[in-house]
Every structure is written in structure tokens, then in C-alpha cells.
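Here is an idea for our session: we take a single protein and study its fold together. Which protein we use is up to you, so please pick one and set it down. Once you have written the record down, we can walk along the chain together:
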Amino acid sequence: MAGDFVADCRMRQGTDLFAHVWDPVVVAALVAGPQRRRALRVSIGGISDKALTESLHRLVACGLLERRSYAEAPPRVDYALTALGRSFADGPMRALADWVLQYGDDLVDA
């Protein structure tokens, strides 16, 4: 078991998906379908423009989101979950949400 958890191990890569506060929130906001950046910012209360930009860049870079640009005037860009992003939302994020619903009061009380 020693050496199984090194700096670039898969467990660390997986837990990094929850390390940034806004990343899971952005993924959750896109579960309903593709959205433009402005619509995302409106639907996610309290996120700054900088935080949204950073989150979108991270999620695209790790393959959870895709950025679709359209040659229109004015230019249009949509963000959508990839198959990997949907599996993250339907799997670990759903499991965490279920756990928090069950044990959230215990967390607050502690």
C-alpha cells in the first residue's frame, strides 16, 4: 500500500475534482443541459466572474466540460457536460449529495 498515493495518483486526480469550491457547482448547473457563460453566472448565485472563468477553464482542461463556439454575430459560446462530466455528476456527485442529505444535520451539529 505504501507508494499507492503519490502526487499524481488517480485518487488525487479524482479528489481534486472536489477541491475547488465552484467546480462541482458548475457541473451541477450544467446537468440540465448546455448553457452560455452569462446564463451560468446568473444560475449560480454568488460566483464571481473570475471564479467562473477559472472553473470553466479547469473543467474543460480535465475533460468534464466541452466548450462549443458558434460563428455568429455576436459570437456565441456554450458549455456542456461531456460523457465523462455526466458520469461524474451521476456518480460521485450524486453519491455525495445523497450522503449529505442523510447526514447533513449531523455535520452541522458537530
In short: The helical segments are 10-19, 22-29, 37-43, 49-61, 83-109. Residues 101 and 109 are 14 Å apart (CA to CA). The chain has a mean pLDDT of 90. The beta strands are 35-36, 65-70, 76-81.
